[in-house]
Amino acid sequence: MFDALQTWLSSFLYDWLAILITLLIQAVAVILPVLLAVAWLTFFERKVIGYMQIRMGPNRVGPKGWLQPIADALKLMNKEIIFPSQSNLYLFVIAPVLALAPAIAGWAVIPFDANGVVAADINAGLLYVLAVSSVVVYGVVISGWASNSKYAFLGAMRASAQKISYEIAMGFALVTVLMVAGSMNLTAIVEGQQGGILHWYWIPLLPMFFVYFLSGVAETNRAPFDVAEGESEIVAGFHVEYSGMAFAIFFLAEYAMMILISFMTAIMFLGGWLSPFEGVPVLGELLAWVPGFIWLFAKVALFLFIFLWFRATFPRYRYDQIMRLGWKVFIPVTIVWVFVVGAMAYYRVGPWFN
Amino acid sequence: MTFEQFIFYILTTVAALSGLMVISVKNPVKAALWLVLTFVSTAGVWLIAQAEFLGLVLILVYVGAVMVLFLFVVMMLDINVATIKEGFTRYYPLGALTALAIFALIYLVVGPSRFGLEQVSSPMVDEDVSNTLSIAVPLYTTHVFAFILAAVLLLVGIVAAITLTLRRRPPETVLYQNIDKQVKAKSADYFRMVKMDAVKKDADLPEEEKD
């Protein structure tokens, strides 16, 4: 579709201008739905946690409260942005941008359906997502330092230590996926899982599935790993000095990252856009008409629900417990599993290693 | 000038300028952040050279991990910039001479007379083989011993760093948590339910409180 657009545009424009316009349209086509999803994910979160705590959640703005995110956005845009005295102004302003930009850049390589529905189908997609998600920490660290506030600084320190710890486990989990799939291209990883629910990578990589998702929860600073913004200890952590839209951008980045992690988990372990009923006698044919992205979105919605479920269920981890879980539990498990996957690949176990 | 050349010159200019800023800004935290920008633009140059594995690993390892830890340390330092800059003019000629000498050395070894398409032909790039594979194959075949040696050296470095900073304290002075014991704890181990009346009977009270 975009190739056709580009050839049509280049028939009357400069080539580079045609490429630029096509790239911009592609970027908007990916980023706009992500930001809308973020907006209504906040609504979903408040409703889900509300029902879990036996209350209604937001229900005043629009039918059943569905326009609540728009009201929130309008409110945040009208608020004054306060710059603390003695703060480092340039870094203070650039920090939210550094938080949001990588969270959105990661979407460039996410495939949404078969036949190349992806903005950039690059070879090293897996590595790209890992690299991009490791850069998100700069927004947190710089905001904490530039705010010139002790609470914000403590939050930044906690966040950077936590993210680096969990990135190692995350990286090893991706290494095992790479070993099974034999490719870093995300489309190729999904295509390698063809053939029904038993062919998906969550079975040979079951511990990695959990390690990756939980590390993802820690990476996004979500409860129960949200010590970086622990309200009871350090007020709001790294974004305590931010107000209005500057604060909202941190919020956007966190939720965009949540959705990105959910997409990555669904793509790497739960077969991406593949139907779970593939190869099942009757149901498989009955549901063959369902387009792939519906399945992908259903899996992503499941993981997002689990994110919210965690938040409503678990108390916050203590800092030393977080470090123990990351370094003494997750990293040893992942290192052992790299060798297990190597052995499984050598003996060609199951339908996964062929 | 092609579009790729244009991008290349932008990235190299940014890399060079931000490298200059690293050594010229006063604030150490800002210097570290300029260094991050240098890394990012260098990664961009590698991406243009079709070395996407190297470019992404540079971002992942140096930008995502090393520089964050570096910032972590630098941010907590309370450096008095004035004392560091002390004697700058006094040592300036010596420093300039050293810099010139090093530049001359580098120019002799990797100057334009040694590089460029006239001296080294551009490597054959196979469209089907990814950059990751073309790095991995020589790394694990012809250069495997050097690779393992490097890994062992890194391990020795880790062990040395931990040994230097490890502070053993006698277990009787420090309370350690036994996580297994904590996880296995049952409420019955710590609570004893006692059945008793809500109001004490008159007979149980001490003599002076009886009415």
Architecture overview:
The complex is a heterodimer of chains A (354) and B (211). With 354 residues, chain A is mainly alpha-helical. Chain A has helices at residues 2-10, 15-52, 68-78, 89-105, 125-135, 137-146, 150-181, 186-191, 206-219, 231-234, 244-269, 281-286, 292-313, 319-346. The model of chain A has no long low-confidence stretch (mean pLDDT 84). With 211 residues, chain B is mainly alpha-helical. Chain B has nine helices and no strands. The longest helix of chain B is centred in the first third of the chain and has 25 residues, at 52-76. Chain B is elongated, with a radius of gyration of 32 Å. Chain A binds chain B through residues 16, 91, 122-124, 127-128, 130-131, 134-135, 137-138, 141-142, 145, 153, 156-157, 160-161, 163-164, 167, 171, 184, 324, and chain B through 3, 29-30, 33, 36, 52-53, 56-57, 59-60, 63-65, 68-69, 71-72, 75-76, 130-132, 179.
Number of helical segments of chain B?
9
Major protein interface: A-B, 27 and 24 residues
**Shape estimate of chain A:** globular
The separation of the N and C termini of chain A measures 34 Å
Model regions low in confidence, pLDDT < 50 over at least 5 residues of chain A: none
Structural class of chain A: mainly alpha
- Nearest-integer average pLDDT of chain B: 82
Number of strands of chain B: 0
Mind describing the biggest β-sheet of chain B? none
Q: Count of helices of chain A?
A: 14
**Poorly predicted spans of chain B:** none
Question: What fraction strand of chain B?
Answer: under 5%
Q: Helices and strands of chain B: which structural class?
A: mainly alpha
Record field, number of beta strands of chain A: 0
What is the mean predicted local confidence, pLDDT of chain A?
84
Order of helices and strands of chain B: HHHHHHHHH
